[in-house]
């Protein structure tokens, strides 16, 4: 995966950066369940309803269950 500036960035660190926007920084690593990088780029995380709402307003958000 390449960052917008062309530098390589680990997908899991990118996912952590996204989570930091909606989850308390001390809980980010516990919230991240899994990073997916082979067939598609995404992640699974434990989120509160309020965190889901905040994340759903982001431009890169696709789907939540």
UniProtKB/TrEMBL annotation:
What Gene3D superfamilies does the record point to? Peptidase S8 propeptide/proteinase inhibitor I9
Under which name does UniProt file this protein? Answer: Inhibitor I9 domain-containing protein
**A Pfam family annotated for this UniProt entry:** Inhibitor_I9
Q: Domain Inhibitor I9 spans what residues?
A: 13-56
Q: Which InterPro entries match?
A: S8pro/Inhibitor_I9, S8pro/Inhibitor_I9_sf
Q: Which domain of life is it from?
A: Eukaryota
